[in-house]
Write a structure and sequence with these properties.
Diaminopimelate Epimerase, Chain A, domain 1; 8-stranded mixed barrel; alpha+beta; trans-L-3-hydroxyproline dehydratase activity
């Protein structure tokens, strides 16, 4: 059985409910509240308002930042949101054939290019609210067009509704820089890696900053990660083979340093945007970290690793499933870079974790 669309998702009045008087100049946005591994997701199925217009999703992302940022602030910031709030706004039809949904990802400081925890949640939303393909057992493939490109979610279906665990196949991920030395004010010179998993992150062990990702205070970890992000932005310029719109440092992920393959979980904390903390292990960050581990020959194709959030203890698992090559052209220099296509799925630590709504 395929569920029909919720009436308000297609613009009809909510059953017997009317909105109280409000300022005509303010947008009315209806949202579905979800979370993945403890990381919130406020989904706006009808989008941020008229528009944003554009021939591509990346162009719509630019237009949203320029023309609809008031809607992002209304959704995510106080008093309706909070410092840790994250959002996704559907934007109607994708220009990519085969995509079931297209989404913009919103955070407290702006717009990201990829969000793994949102992809996992949107896969379930698409089936439960009739916004995607007709569900089928045992799992349904949902193609979600993200600003970084199409990402495929695989969502279990029991005949009535979606279930956990959800997994996805990412866009190709790669190591952008390995063993890069960066001068971080207050911490000195540190060696770190830059990985791409739909967004660019700096990666290093918290120990290099005199901290422990499992026992140091979140405030100390956030301050250190933010200092690293700002230093990397000034000293390293990422390049993306598809679009310079994707070539920016999104944040820093501090780890426990356990990058070699092991059946035991490895712990990390992701600090992105304006010192915002991801309460999940971070979908795009896990993907980038897998790419770095594969690049350094610390893991092999098909080896599954488990990643733990240092703030909530929630778990994601991930593995590299395909070795590809990404062709980069920069000026007159052409080179080939090892790349992996990473698959990731959620593993539930508690029944309350996962894609809930």
């Amino acid at each position: 059985m395929r569920p029909g669309p919720a009436p308000w998702l297609v613009g009809e009045a909510m059953s017997g409910l009317e909105l109280p008087p409000h300022a005509a100049a303010l947008p009315v946005l209806r949202a579905v509240e979800m979370h993945t591994g403890g990381e919130p997701l406020r989904v706006v199925p009808a989008g941020l308002g008229p528009g944003p217009e554009g021939a591509t999703l990346l162009e719509r992302r630019r237009r949203a930042a320029a023309e609809l940022d008031h809607a992002r602030r209304l959704l995510l910031l106080e008093p309706r949101g909070h410092r840790g709030m994250y959002g996704a706004a559907l934007v109607g039809r994708s220009e990519l054939p085969g995509a079931h949904l297209a989404a913009l990802f919103l955070h407290g400081a702006g717009y990201s290019a990829m969000c793994g925890h949102a992809v996992l949640a949107l896969g379930r939303l698409a089936l439960d609210y009739g916004l995607g393909p007709a569900p089928c057992r045992p799992e349904t493939r949902v193609v979600i067009h993200c600003p970084c490109g199409p990402v495929t979610a695989f969502v279990p279906w029991d005949g009535q509704r979606s279930r956990n665990p959800v997994r996805f196949h990412s866009m190709p991920a790669f190591a952008a820089a390995a063993d890069l030395t960066v001068d971080v004010p207050g911490y000195g010179k540190v060696v770190l890696d830059i990985g791409y998993g739909g967004a660019f992150y700096a990666f290093l062990s918290a120990e290099k900053l005199g901290l422990d990702v499992c026992s140091s205070s979140v405030r100390d970890l956030v301050d250190a990660a933010t200092a690293v992000t700002e230093a990397v932005k000034k000293q390293f310029k990422p390049h993306h083979p598809d679009s310079e719109d994707l070539a920016f440092i999104y944040g820093t992920i501090l780890t426990d340093g356990k990058d070699a393959f092991s059946d035991e979980p490895t712990t990390n904390i992701c600090v992105f945007g304006d010192a915002q903390v991801d309460r999940s292990p971070t979908g795009s960050g896990v993907t980038a970290r897998i790419a770095l581990q594969y690049h350094k020959r610390l893991i092999k194709l098909g080896q599954t690793r488990t990643f733990r959030s240092s703030t909530t203890g929630s778990l994601f698992t991930g593995k590299a499933v395909e070795d590809k090559a990404v062709l980069d052209v920069l000026g007159n220099v052409t080179w080939r870079r090892d790349s992996v296509k990473a698959a990731k799925e959620v593993t539930l630590l508690k029944e309350t974790w996962g894609c809930q709504h």
